Amino acid sequence: MPDITPVPDFEDAEKVQQYIQDRRVIGYDPLVQPALLRHEIVASANAQKTVAAARYAAARIVAGQDDRLLVILGPCSIHSTSLAMEYAALLKAKLAEWPNLFIIMRAYLCDRLINDPEINGSFKINKGLRLARQLLCDITDLGIPVGQELLDTISPQYLADLLSWAAIGARTTESQLHRELASGVSFPIGFKNGTDASVSIAIDAMQSAGAPHAFMGVTEQGLAAIVKTRGNLDTHVILRGGNRGPNYASEHVKAAVKAIQSKNRDFASLMVDCSHGNSQKNFLNQPRVLEDVCAQLAAGERNITGVMVESNINEGRQDVPSDGPHLLKHGVSITDACVNWETTVAMMDALNRAVGQRRQALIDAGFSRPPGYLRSAPDA
């Protein structure tokens, strides 16, 4: 059996130094400064307006002050900028048909486009960051807001000015680093329930993110710094199911609302993830999850303020061919399986109708609108 930890040579100072420092690190490559990349790839005036208007609208929706539904819609992850733009164009052409929905394109980048843009293990992260920033500039310039998952505490410095919403995943919701990060970002954040389907971790994360923090971080100039935040109250829970099963049904929603209200939140805001544990990792179940959500909305459920759907141009998923990414099928995910565009349109049609039915049901029930309920945002 090989020695996992070799005995150091205490008589050789140089070998001792090698033993105690970076013994398992292969090397360090330079990383472009966030400020330099932002200077190099600048968001257009239209892109900035898209971001600002979407942040305002999303914050009002999760606060219960706008009765539209926030929809995070798009590929599981993006591995091709051209395919992402093709999807964005499809989405833009349909937005006017869904006035009851406020759609933010899912633009999850870090695990694929940023870390390994050539999909060959070369990990040209600087190239990936440039591709990612340019892509988000292009999508938002179309008038399509974007959102993504915050996987680490460094990459947001390169892209955060282009995001209108973000998620903290089930495996990182309990992470203090991610809670601190969420407390300082300038857009709404959704915390996913834990992998066991419990919402308590997500609720605790919201409480933490709403408070001020001071922590170690990185500036736009790439320097280590002490970051001080005010706290972020534009937060909500994402029900994504877990290893105990789905948690999107009415009884799960009501239980989550009760748990959130017990923490003295002004409004219990829930987003339902139609994929992951709720679909039991079968993309064909996403429409079934959405059908149940639509029924709850049509019955007047106010606390469901959003849904998340993993959608792509073509359905399913694929592995990267051993002969190279040039053999990938067009518009098919290389991570989690997604529903195709035709199914997506049918799902959004149903969701748009359900939100309209909810509005009418609440009017019929004499619902009293909270202060500021009428929309006043640009483009809202």
TrEMBL record:
It catalyses: D-erythrose 4-phosphate + phosphoenolpyruvate + H2O = 7-phospho-2-dehydro-3-deoxy-D-arabino-heptonate + phosphate. Residues 57-347 form the DAHP synthetase I/KDSA domain. One of its GO terms (biological process) is amino acid biosynthetic process. InterPro entries: Aldolase_TIM, DAHP1/KDSA, DAHP_synth_1. One of its GO terms (molecular function) is 3-deoxy-7-phosphoheptulonate synthase activity. Its EC number is 2.5.1.54. It holds the Pfam family DAHP_synth_1. Pathway: Metabolic intermediate biosynthesis; chorismate biosynthesis; chorismate from D-erythrose 4-phosphate and phosphoenolpyruvate: step 1/7. The keyword Amino-acid biosynthesis applies. Keywords: Amino-acid biosynthesis, Aromatic amino acid biosynthesis, Transferase. It is an enzyme of class 2 (transferase). One of its GO terms (cellular component) is cytoplasm. Stereospecific condensation of phosphoenolpyruvate (PEP) and D-erythrose-4-phosphate (E4P) giving rise to 3-deoxy-D-arabino-heptulosonate-7-phosphate (DAHP). PANTHER family: PHOSPHO-2-DEHYDRO-3-DEOXYHEPTONATE ALDOLASE DAHP SYNTHETASE (PTHR21225), PHOSPHO-2-DEHYDRO-3-DEOXYHEPTONATE ALDOLASE, TYROSINE-INHIBITED (PTHR21225:SF12). NCBIfam families: aroFGH (TIGR00034), PRK12755.1 (NF009395). Belongs to the class-I DAHP synthase family. This is Phospho-2-dehydro-3-deoxyheptonate aldolase. It comes from Mycena chlorophos (Agaric fungus).
